[in-house]
Amino acid sequence: MSEEKKGFDTKEVTRRQFLKISGVSLAGLVLSTPLLTLMGCTQKQVDEGEVMVWAMPQGLLVVNASRCVGCQRCELNCSLSNDGAASTFISRVKIQRKLNLDGAGNGLLSENPWLYFPDTCRQCEDPACGKVCPQQAIYADETTGVRKVDQEKCIGCGACVQACPWHMPTVNPETKKSSKCIACGACVAGCPSGALSIVDWDAVTSAAQDAYKDL
Amino acid sequence: MAETFGWAGKLLRVDLSTGSITTEDSAKYQEYIGGMGMAYRIMYDEAPMDLDPYDEKALVIFGVGPLTGSGVPCSGRMNITFRSTWSKGHSIVDAHMGGHIGPQLKYAGYDGIVVTGISAKPVYLKIEDDKVSLEDASAVWGKGTFESNAWLIEQTGREFEAASIGPAGENLMDYSTLNTSFGNAGGAGVGAALGNKKLKGIVIRGTGTVKVADPKKVLELSSYMMGNLIGGNNNHNVPALPQSWAEFSAVSGKNRWSGAPGRVWGHTPDGEEIDAGEQPYNDINKIAYRCLKGVFDFGEVASNYIIKSGGCQSCPIRCYTQYEIDPLAEYDLPIHNSNTCMPVLYGNYAYPGVELKDFKYEGDAKMVINLAWSHAVDDMGLWDNYGNINRDLKWFLSLPREEAVGYIGEEEYDSLPWDWMHDGDPRWEVEIIRRLAMGEGKLSVIAKGTLAMMEAFGLPKEWLDRADGTNSNLMYCGFPNHHGPAEAWQTGMLYNMFYNRDCMIHEIVCETGSGAPYEVTKKVMEDFFGEGCYDKSKAYTPINENKVKLAIYCAADKNFHDSSTLCNWMWPMTQSPSKERDYHGDLDLQADFMTAVTGKTYTQDDLQEFGKKILHMLRVMTAISFKLNCDSANLRTEHDAITGWVFDKEPDFKPFEEGTTKLDREDMKKAMDMMYTELGWDVETGIPTAETLKAYGLEDMAKDLADRGII
Amino acid sequence: MLFGRRKKGFSTVAAVTDPKSAVEELQADEMAAKKKPKSPTFDIDSAAEAARKANEAGASVESAQETMAAGEEKVDLFDFLAQQPDVEDQFADIPAEPEEQEPEIQAPAHWKLAEYIRIRSANAQVTGLILLKSEVEGLEELLEAMAADETCKDIATRQGAKDLYYYSTATMSDNYAMIDVLIQDDDLVSMMAQMVRFNAKTYPAATPFFYFQRPPYNRSKAEVEQAWAAMQTMEQYQDIQELTNNENTRFLYSTQYLTPRYAKAISDVDLFTD
Questions:
Q1: How many angstroms away from the CA of B252 is the closest CA of chain C?
Q2: ipTM confidence
Q3: Residue in B closest to A110 by C-alpha
Q4: CA atoms within 13 A on the CB side of A102
Q5: Domain at C109-178, CATH class
Q6: How many helices (H) and strands (E) would you count in chain C?
Q7: Do B308 and A66 form a contact (C-beta atoms < 8 A)?
Q8: By CB distance 3.0 to 4.6 Å, which of B604, B628, C120, C274 could disulfide with C125?
Q9: Which domains does chain A have, with CATH numbers?
Q10: Segment among A8-12, B339-343, B476-480, C170-174 with least mean pLDDT
Q11: Are the Cβ atoms of C204 and B278 closer than 8 angstroms?
Q12: Which chain C positions have a beta carbon within 8 Å of A25's beta carbon?
């Protein structure tokens, strides 16, 4: 192992590193103890593919499927916060579609009933949603860098929904406008089981530095 | 349709005979809140009690309310109103279900579904926003609810929520359910009510929203509730084991805030335990670990099988422990099991006198047997009538052969796989459940109801008086005690009298079972409901005015919950885990949520009046049914008569002596007088007076009662 | 109706019982889809199909997962990240938040002590004076300063049999401090008697034997039995009595606060009160 810090010297660099694996299971990787502690998960959960991370402006969004209890409070807090109405469909974090049958053999009515977890926008480095938008309505927010949908420009055509490999943007049938995750953190704040959590970049950075210091 | 907040604004009407599907504006039902209240008005107006419950014109009314799916915590419920076929009087009755389907109905744009008619062939109702259709369900007719629900979602799409009846409902077994999600079900015979209509299930997807007048306020109130007021399951406000932030814990260890350090989800797929840890009352992100229902139900051994906890939409309290019971694989039985309360508690009653053997871990015998029971009853869509099916079965299975064959005959008796029972084999209970659900043999009359069984077996009315500890029927109507006198003195007896099924009222048991010191809870209760309202455990005092008022409050509050819809196990926020609040909850919170969601101003007093109005409507329809079906409209003597054991149990104790929950006959007479008077009901008949009905805007019902010679 | 549509592979419920492979497959599908060259008319079904083919062909999409499949040593996350090609940081333009210049406050030394006690309290531990004496220099002055400091008013003390204990009322309840001090005293007979009396007086309730076997006491069954046997021989504990309820669970209670008849009644489990 190298003794360099390998590019985890500032939180900006750390974030850039994690963008490489946004929305991906960490299965196959070994996490240092400090990082596991921060993320509130275990190496075994990582090995089993139950831990996914998303790089967000304010930190690393961690989804621990083992802890998800399927209450949908993430969807409700999301839609109430962002859209002023309660819904699962227009929520920018998505669990309803994985709850009963996720199409991959999991969900309450499958042979593997106790595996369900929320999913959200990967904030892709090269966003298919933005590229396909005929109005160029999907832009990076100036202050947060998060991909957002310009509600003025959006014509609700749904191209972004189709283009996103995970169908994360959603056209609200009532407003005929698309919306997607803006990394506001409402889902995390209200998660009653800690299945969703955000670890801030400073903490991740120092965990990375600690990991190399120990070697 | 005017824009409304909270309510979806439309009612869906489905006629299974003609295939007609229409919608109408639901605004006129807002004065009944929704759910139960709305359904009672519709039932009275459109399907009088004169109809046979299985008449083509009989209605099954699915109802949600302004709070359903609105994001208010613990608001994921749906009420279903129909006619009882099994309790005395065959009157109006409700099933209540959780899961995730009620909110989907709202998101699809409906406050309710009124189903009439009888289909020529098995169908399911598909609702996708404003696209509603009846589809062929022949492929799953005869199938269990788990397979049916999965099939329904496979046919329609993965964002749909499904509910279906099982063989019990199809075969018109009166103890039958409608099942949704995993283990969530509405009971009371709704399976048969739908089976009669050949409606196998419903499947719903809504892409809309519940519009909320003040979303910021809803979020604020939610945080306030989750950070200050909410406790564990049944809103128990102290943990079961000492936690460092808490002054108190339940000494018996038996309360539903059962998550604690060292108690784990111990059977996670990776084998890595998740420790429930401490859950400080103000830590929102740990609430889901408070209720470790499996450990509450079965003790520490449960952890070996627990994968995680589930429950209903919007609720942070996860009362459905989700297990993998791998020993059941050896019997070719499903290993994934989840339910809460009755379906997981008394499956072992099918093995009277048998010393059950452990399966894999020391002390796991009862839990494995009970979880096999819960899956089988859920799959068959069989209802337990709050344990009556278990108790009646246990009574029968305990009989000596010579007596039992007198009821079902030698051939049937000997066809039962008794070896399985003696071996503690879970296939025994599954086979019994199958026979009950299929209506196979004379024994299956148990699933037609306690009263039907008594009639078939020639058991006298006094059978319901027996005081040997095996009996739970508080009245002679065919349904049992639900948190009655054993937990809530005369108040509990009184509120058990109103309904045509077990009352499903948890307003008092949530306090008496909380584990908090008596003086702490008493202070909360007396501050809210007046001096003398709250008796000490097994140390009761004679009836007083505040206990009577509390009984009425409980019923009115429950009626509001099933109308709005909120979970009555969690609501209202009576106690709090917060020492800073002196453990006082906030009874006004539900009214505050109503205001924030609907944009109309509500007070808790308003909600009580709505709840009382529903109580009067219920009583009117019950009186009409009793007049028609029991030849007497005197509800005091026909419906509210109390069984003997309530007064005669525990012969070593006198009523009001320290150590007993038995009641006193004279005292209860006085209590009933006081209650009828307080409600504005006739003291002799227990029926609302014309003046009372008029005061609640129910003039039409007053006239109807008069025309029928009831008042 | 994108998600209402029936998709290939969705008409039957796949018999996946292994959550590991389930999630991995899901992730693999998604990553394969992600790596497909993006075209303006992205077709979800063909993406899913491509992912499935990739998967069937055994083409694992994650280098880390490839390593795993090859049975090689797992890769450290940070190493893995460092080895991956750089990506554009879409958040890179974020104007650096102006670093809040916190005024340099010289924290008084006793604050550190108070914070130490608070952290231990939050971890359900009282802090003994003997421990502090062995760890902290100049303890006397610090304790005095702490006692005089308004901001440390949450620091409370409780006298145990052998030591004085500190805890923070901000993170620990008084009754829990009582329990933990009794645990620290390590006199099981005395602890059991005190808690049995406390529970009988406060709730009121008889105390099951198993109460002391559970957290935070965690004593063995044998220890509890031994202590009860010893207690019965001691004059000062003659108010402590045993009862067995209707489910054969054994309890202790104090006759100072409960009559035998009432103690038995409230310990009995009533059926059908679930």
A1: 6
A2: 0.96
A3: B150
A4: 30
A5: mainly alpha
A6: 11, 7
A7: yes
A8: C120
A9: 124-180 (3.30.70.20)
A10: A8-12
A11: no
A12: 23-24, 27
